[in-house]
């Protein structure tokens, strides 16, 4: 309940420019110079900040830059503090997937290729977010944001659809690319009903980057071996299919607290404050 | 682990500082205040 509340507040907070939804325009204030920690399209009418993945592609696609210190620095900062807690608690597209998974249809959350498909998000990151915008450039030396253009369903959901509804100019310009992106969105929506957070598991490049920080982040999860009775209820409860007892700070853990709630003996602990305290005590 | 953690934190802050120094944020801002045609599916 608390997580859902934080997710909702976060979604409203990152998309608080309500007038944009009414007028079919986007926010153009100074806040847009900053990236938000989540995958939230900067062309969403309500968006108050910039999408880190969109921004990363924009800088790499610019002929002046071959590397993005600013955006990577911000992503690293968010990642080192919270890791994938951001996915579990702050991401609006994560909230959408969480709600879709609540639809009571038969679930297929564990299947044969689940493990191998997890690497797909790193392929997306390398080819669509980094190499594509950087190397596949036009005659003027600028590239395209390939992830935003050909894959990102958050852009379609948060920006494409609201702008198409409220802005006649946008609506009249829509063509086959929009149809294609709608198809991607429909597939992700359907998959989200059957599989828990398929976009986060298999496709999200930002989740992939944050996953790399899970082991190092200030926010840590811990199993107390003295308390743990090895009942494995935590493993059964994990919808990201993480082996909680073996690797609780796995790259795939979105820190949703499912395991913490499921533990009958309160053996799992999570937090930022406690980890900082532990570091302080260790001197 | 702690050393890596603080090292990554320092690198992140240094990166942000360099990005601001070389005006990289201007590209982010310029992109973010215009409707991103690729994002919404116009291309």
Q: Output the radius of gyration of chain A.
A: 20 Å
Average pLDDT level of chain B = 95
Global geometry of chain B: elongated
Low-confidence segments of chain B, given as residue ranges, are none
Biggest sheet architecture of chain B: none
Percentage beta strand of chain A: under 5%
Structure description:
The complex is a heterodimer of chains A (283) and B (43). Chain A is mostly helical and 283 residues long. Helices cover 55% and strands 3% of the residues of chain A. Chain A is built from 17 helices and two strands. Chain A has a two-stranded antiparallel sheet. In chain A, helix 3 runs antiparallel to helix 4 and helix 10 crosses helix 12. In chain A, 50% of the residues are buried. The mean pLDDT of chain A is 95. Chain B is mainly α and 43 residues long. Chain B is built from three helices and no strands. Chain B is elongated, with a radius of gyration of 16 Å. The termini of chain B are far apart. The relative contact order of chain B is 0.09. Chains A and B meet through helix 3, helix 4, helix 10 and helix 12 of A and helix 1, helix 2 and helix 3 of B.
